[in-house]
Specification:
31% of the residues lie in helices and 21% in strands. The protein is of the alpha/beta class. A 10-stranded mixed β-sheet has the order 14-13-12-11-7-10-9-8-15-16. It has a 6-stranded parallel β-sheet with strand order 3-2-1-4-5-6, with helices on both faces. The longest helix is centred in the last third of the chain and has 20 residues, at 381-400. The radius of gyration is 21 Å and the shape is globular.
């Protein structure tokens, strides 16, 4: 698919420039199209290091800042920049130093989940464009505040679901929109892989190279222990959203896109828990969530989205470790974001197919293009919020063991005060990074 055709399809599908911006492209960025972007990378470990390496391959980006609360990670990322460019970036453990630098145009935020919203909101209010990793927010309320921050500051905010910029995924979505499998009534996403046991640990002193208090940020105060970080934070309630918000969010995003729904669900049911692991992780290792989207006008058109998770599975499902199935009235489409897709038509006849892999450079390109031209990116913060909210709502239904009735417009859970409390989080009193409006 050519780039113009791709852009046209994305726009028609409601995932590109769907909302009119109140600021012109010139207001978004005064620099010309050929000027280099000055950027900072906040959290350059794990996925953050992939961003550093990808950005270093570009001629139009200068990595001016590396920010990490772990001195060793910061030094490692800074050395990558020095080796590639011959220049030492500035380093800091406090993201406020990056945001105070007027020369910085944009930041990449690849911190733990509990920092995504606070860092993004602070960055937008400081006039920076933001690329933030998934899930965009630790909880549903923070996602809405991120949208408001992006809009009031006229900033581009791209969420790191790079499949939104991947050619074979876009082609699969176009096939669904063109009716290749008829009307899509049900979409499924799955996360079936073998994760590791994080063990049982006791509190201990943090290593000297880690500023643990700064790592905690606005999250509730607690003691350090070795199975909190790095990377392990995602299994803890205060810092992550479990694997549904880690790997699952990618495939949930594609399920929602392919299903063609652009709102929140109105009813959520789920079952799950820790069926396999005996360790300190708090989120489920086994989960089955169902989200129902009623027809907007009350006519026939109810849609269903299913997510299933087994992070102890030693095998692939439908040949994909993580994947999607779209069930239509005339066939089925199986999609693996890492490898491709195929259509099975009535009578099990084979239909169209396509191979491909995700493209992080394409997602970066889309983000930077949108800063220049004033359009909304493929994974705009509002898109990321609606997808991340499924992870949060699924987790709430799993934790309470009840069917959740949700008001999509008000973003409120109905008639269930216990469940309603999980739409937000507790913060450390008076911390400087608590988002306003929480």
């Amino acid at each position: 698919m050519s780039n113009p055709d791709r852009r046209r399809f994305l726009k028609q599908a409601g995932v590109s420039a769907a909302v009119a911006w109140s600021a012109s492209a010139a207001a978004l960025r005064a620099a010309g199209a050929n000027e280099r972007f000055v950027v900072g990378v906040i959290g350059p470990g794990g996925m953050g290091s992939s961003h550093v390496k990808t950005l270093l391959s570009r001629d139009d980006v200068q990595i001016a800042w590396i920010c990490d609360v772990d001195e060793l990670r910061a030094a490692s990322a800074a050395q990558l920049v020095k080796s590639a460019t011959g220049q030492d970036p500035k380093t800091t453990k406090d993201l406020r130093q990056v945001l105070d630098d007027k020369s910085v145009d944009a930041v990449w935020i690849a911190t733990p989940d509990h920092w995504h919203a606070p860092a993004t909101i602070l960055a937008c209010d400081a006039g920076k464009h933001v690329y933030v990793e998934k899930p965009c927010a630790h909880n549903l309320r923070e996602g809405r505040l991120m949208i408001e921050a992006a809009r009031r500051n006229h900033r581009v905010v791209q969420v790191g679901t790079q499949s939104r910029s991947t050619e074979h995924v876009i082609a699969a979505m176009q096939a669904l929109r063109e009716g290749t499998i008829g009307d899509v009534l049900v979409a499924k996403a799955w996360n079936s892989q073998r994760r590791g046991n994080i063990g049982h640990c006791q509190p201990s002193d943090p290593p000297a190279h880690l500023d643990f208090d700064l790592w905690l940020g606005p999250a509730p105060q607690r003691a350090y222990q070795t199975n909190l970080l790095h990377g392990i934070w995602r299994w803890w309630h205060d810092f992550g959203a479990g694997d549904i918000g880690n790997d699952g969010v990618h495939d949930i995003d594609l399920a929602r896109w392919g299903l063609g729904v652009d709102t929140h669900p109105s009813r959520i049911s789920a079952l799950g828990g820790k069926y396999f692991f005996d360790d300190d992780q708090q989120w489920p290792d086994t989960q089955y969530c169902i989200f129902e989207y009623p027809a907007a006008d009350g006519s026939r058109g109810t849609r269903q989205l299913i997510f299933e998770q087994r992070i102890w599975s030693p095998y692939f499902q439908e040949t994909h470790e993580n994947g999607n199935a779209f069930y239509g009235t005339k066939g089925m489409l199986i999609l693996g974001k890492m490898s491709g897709w195929k259509v099975i038509l009535e009578g099990n006849k084979p239909g169209p197919s396509m191979s491909g892999t995700p493209s992080l450079p394409a997602h970066h390109q889309d983000f930077l293009d949108c800063i220049r031209n004033g359009q909304q990116p493929h994974a705009d913060i509002e898109i990321g919020h609606k997808t991340a909210s499924l992870c949060h709502l699924g987790n709430i239904a799993t934790r309470t063991g009840r069917t959740i009735s949700f008001d999509p417009a008000a973003e409120k859970i109905l008639n269930d005060p216990e469940a309603e409390q999980f739409l937000r989080r507790a913060y450390r009193p008076d911390h400087w990074a608590i988002p306003r409006g929480v």
